Amino acid sequence: MSIGELFLVAVSLxxxxxxxxxxxxxxxxxxxxxxxxxxxxxxxxxxxxMPLLGYFVxxxxxAFVAAFSHWIAFALLALIxxxxxxxxxxxxxxxxxxxxxxxxxxLPLALATSIDAFAVGVSFAFLEIxxxxxxxxxxxxxxxxxxxxxxxxxxxxxHLKSRAELVGGLILIGIGVKIVVEGLFF
Length: 186
Hints:
The chain is mostly helical. The chain has one domain (3-185). Helix content is 83%, strand content 0%. It contains six helices and no strands. Helix 1 (3-27) packs antiparallel against helix 4 and helix 2 (33-65) packs parallel to helix 4.
């Protein structure tokens, strides 16, 4: 996987965190720099941890599924992409987001937004990829986009949320198609 493809995966994975960050920005009266950084750190850390865990789980099965690993990677990325597109079409969920930045509110949000990163980590086990570089890259991209999300929540509102999820879903599906084409023909 090239650095450009890894960047697209990182941005796509961070779209859920970005969308929730926008909602946090909307829910807070005026988020402070500390609150903004807290959101970025929670989401960035979980988005880095989950693909690493997925990679180690997927590596256990890589020898058994090597012949059709490109199909598994495609299926996982396509399912995540389709789910993100579906979520982008749902009614606005920002109204249920708490304005709290404490661990009780942030931990479940960080876990929920990073579940798809676990599945991507499983698909990484079937690809030639530097997992350490990948998880650091994904974590940093997510941290940065989450900070931008909180700050732009007040300015742009919930419209950004659904567009971000739609674009992220389309990118993941596109990368999945590329992986399966390369697996079949190259």
